[in-house]
Structures are given as C-alpha cells and as structure tokens.
Specification:
It is built from 6 helices and 16 strands. The protein is of the alpha/beta class. The chain folds into 2 domains: about 140 residues, Rossmann fold (3-Layer(aba) Sandwich), CATH 3.40.50; about 70 residues, ACT domain (Alpha-Beta Plaits), CATH 3.30.70.260. Helix 1 crosses helix 2.
Length: about 230
C-alpha cells in the first residue's frame, strides 16, 4: 500500500468515526476538502437509510455533493446555531489549534465552526504537528485591499504569495483573493491570529484558535480523539 492510499484510508476511517456523533434532527455543518468528502459520502448513506438531518455547506462544491446524495441544505445566513460540524484540517496541535483553508473555503468553514455546538475535525496522522506553521496560512482578502493586506503581512515578518489557479488568480466562492502567508513555525499562534484580525481588508485567516471541540485522528490501526 502506497502512502497516498494509506492516507486516504486514514481519512475515511476518521470521517466514519465522526459521523457516529450525528443524531436524528441535527443541523450539520459540512466542511470542504478530501477528508470532509468522506464524511459527506458516509452521511449520504445514512440519510438514504432514514437519518433525518439538515446541513449547512462551507462551499459550493460541498453543497453540490451533499444535494446529489439527498442531504437537505439550509442557508448558512439563516442559522444562529449548528448542532455539529465535521471538517478537516491542514495542520493541528494537541491544544486543538488548527491551520485550515488549503482548499480555499476558510471563511465559510470558520463561520460554521463558530456557530457549532460541537465542532469535530477529522484528520489522518500526517496533519499532527508540534507547532503550527509548516503549512502556510491562507488569508482571504477583499480584492481592493489586496496590496494593503500584502504589505501588512510583510510588516508582520511574513512572506506573502497570492494564490493562483493556473495562470489566473484563485477566486474564492465569495469572490475574493487568497494570500498564502508563511510566518515560519509559530510560537504564539494566538497572538498572530489577533494581529491578522486587525488588518482591514482581511475577511478571514486560516488560524482556527479555540473553535474546535474535538479532533478525531486515524493512524490506520487506531482512532485517537483529542479534546
């Protein structure tokens, strides 16, 4: 078994473990990305078997997948609370801090996490780190503020790159740009999160601090829960 196949098996195992927490009647927040896709597919099977849920999607592609599986979608703008959300992460530490947004859906993912009573992150073991920061921090930026935000990241001693899709700018579902910012390994991610929040023009950044209830990690042989 190659590394990618093993990683996919771990993602699927973690996702299946997470959906066991979903109850009849729940409003479920659905994440974006390869690991979240395993969870959505598994939920679709449960819905076909009679599970009654409604779901809020963190991206257009997640919404389309969920609908194709018979999962009822409700608009995020009309929700004051979400019972449970299931999403992946690009990095996490045992303190339940994350970097997310590799797929470009970080703003809606952060809204869902903020609204969730029980925010569950599902990961394979490659995502566990001692310090966040090897994975660059995605920052969603209002286009007209791009250069200002770019310059502010440099002032915070970060290296900034505008995300591209082929030869064109990557555009989020919200019509914005993403800057991928490298600050090195983070000694104090909480402080950087606050500093990024204070930059005008930043819609959201990929540091998820204090938003996660539990992390379910598969090692291939075991399921480990951090909470």
């Amino acid at each position: 078994m190659n590394d990618e196949t093993q990683q996919n098996k771990e993602k699927q195992a973690a996702a299946i473990a997470a959906i066991a927490f979903v109850k009849n009647g729940d409003v479920v927040g659905l994440g974006t990305g390869s690991t979240a896709t395993y969870a959505i597919n598994a939920l679709g099977k449960k819905v076909a078997e009679g599970l009654k849920i409604k779901a809020a999607a963190s991206s257009i592609r997640t919404e389309e997948l969920a609908k194709s599986l018979g999962i009822e979608i409700v608009s995020l703008e009309n929700l004051s609370t979400i019972d449970i959300s299931i999403d992946g992460a690009d990095e996490f530490t045992e303190s339940l801090n994350l970097i997310k947004g590799g797929g470009g859906a970080l703003f809606r993912e952060k809204i869902i996490a903020t609204l969730s009573k029980n925010s569950i992150i599902v990961v394979d073991r490659s995502k566990k780190v001692k310090k966040l920061g090897a994975f660059t921090i995605p920052i969603e930026v209002i286009p007209l503020a791009f250069q200002y935000v770019f310059d502010q990241i440099l002032k915070l001693s970060g290296k900034a790159t505008k995300r591209k899709k082929g030869n064109k700018n990557f555009i989020t579902d919200n019509g914005n740009y993403i800057i991928d910012a490298d600050f090195g390994l983070l000694e104090k991610p909480e402080e950087l999160a606050i500093a990024l929040n204070q930059i005008n023009g930043v819609l959201a950044h990929g540091l998820f601090i204090g938003l996660t209830s539990k992390i379910i990690m598969s090692t291939g042989n075991d399921i480990i829960v951090f909470e």
